[in-house]
Design goal:
Layout (H helix, E strand, L loop, with lengths): L21 H20 L6 H21 L3 H24 L9
């Protein structure tokens, strides 16, 4: 039971390898915030500009985060953010798109 006596030396909440990953953690947080914003704003037809743009940026941010991610926990959070961003983006595109309704 020697492992029970070892202190937790993890660098952060999402760094399971014991090393800090500030860029990956930042991309994870940004992707989750953009994904939540896109998903929630996609529920309202008149917010299609917000949902489509935040969804698009969230998809791009999450894709880059997946490319450079190191741990499984980072990838899990990025997939959640990517899914929310994609749903928000697609619903925003269905409600008017990236530029639709600007010039009425």
């Amino acid at each position: 039971m020697a492992q029970a006596m070892r202190p937790n030396s993890a660098g952060g909440l999402f760094a399971t390898d014991g090393k800090p990953h500030p860029l990956q953690d930042t991309l994870l947080a940004v992707t989750l915030v953009l994904g939540l914003t896109a998903f929630v704003s996609a529920q309202f037809h008149h917010l299609h500009l917000l949902s489509s743009w935040t969804g698009l940026v969230g998809i791009l941010t999450g894709a880059y985060g997946q490319w450079i991610s190191v741990t499984t926990r980072e990838r899990f959070g990025l997939i959640l953010g990517l899914g929310l961003s994609a749903v928000g983006f697609f619903l925003g595109m269905a409600h008017g798109g990236l530029f639709g309704g600007v010039v009425d």
